[in-house]
Amino acid sequence: MASIPETMWAAHISQFDQPYTITRVPVPRIRPNELLVKIEAAGYCHSDAQVLHGEMQSALPMIPSHEPVGVVVAAGDAADGWTVGDRVGILNFKNACDQCAGCRATHRRWRRLDARFCERRETSGFHHDGAFAEYMAADAATTVALPDSVSFEQGAPLLCAGATVWGALMKARPFLQPGDTVGILGIGGLGQLGVQFARALGYRAVAIDNRDESLQLTRQAPASLQPDLLVNSSHDDARDHIFRHTDHEGLAAVINCVDSLAVNAWSLELLRVGGVAVLLGLPAQRWQFDSYLLVFRELVIRSCYVAGRDEVEEMMQTVHRHGIRSQLTVVGCQEISGVPERYQTKAFRGRLVVRMEGEWQ
């Protein structure tokens, strides 16, 4: 393993709504519970755009991106279970305090600490330095192994997009039986993975979007992981199409990967009696749902922040066994300043990943 330098290249948000600045900064010093990871690839998603626009009220300057994968190059004395050379993915919640109300609640509920709900947790790429850099400090407790069968480029989106939509399916799972039909609403970075996850878990899948180009992303997957039905939600007969497909019962679950109030409200109309809707969007306004549908069809509404470490480890093994893949646009680190603009183009589909090898400038 090569020696660790004292400084590294990194992209920074120095001002909101301005291009990233590329500078050299000190390599992070790790605490006893932490790993130093050489970043091989990192993703960019909608949340990164929100951070750049100042919607997360992040303190600046800050290194963006919360979808990192790489190789462990150093481990703290208390970073149990990891060795130099391990291929890993880093979840964006880390360093739980083990004292706050959130930490106490997770101990009572799950008999273990869960950094997702710590009131003092660090959130890489949101309020603390993230992954658009050569190196990053990771909490050993919220780091997961990246299977050898998964490339760094494919691995990066799994740490947020994958973990989020997998977590949503885990929230729906108690209400489902094998062979039930699950709708994935919004076929972007999350939705294309959601369809494959649903099929891999033994469910039938309906892909729903208002753009045919987005729906076609699902046809890039292996045949066994493709949806059973494609539905363009802008068509007048979209709901009828879904009900005919489900013998007029409706969907057992719908995973909402969009933040439109109207679309999420409409999604409840697609559910069978006792069906479950899992919400992943973060609209500026409050959700609005039909109380008649909720009460008289006994529907369930759940939400999902992001999957926890144990669930992400299960997800990684599912990805390995079934060959689940994202449709990617991969750019080099020398193109990192243009990533936000590229993401905003109307023609962009799938996931955007930065490969960290090569010259930064």
TrEMBL record:
Highest taxon in the source lineage: Eukaryota
GO molecular function, one term: metal ion binding
Name of one Pfam family that matches: ADH_zinc_N
Cofactor(s) named in the record: Zn(2+)
GO cellular component: cytoplasm
Entry keyword set: Metal-binding, Oxidoreductase, Zinc
Residue ranges of domain Enoyl reductase (ER) in the record: 14-354
Family of the protein in this entry: Belongs to the zinc-containing alcohol dehydrogenase family.
Protein name in UniProt: GroES-like protein
Taxonomic source organism: Aspergillus steynii IBT 23096
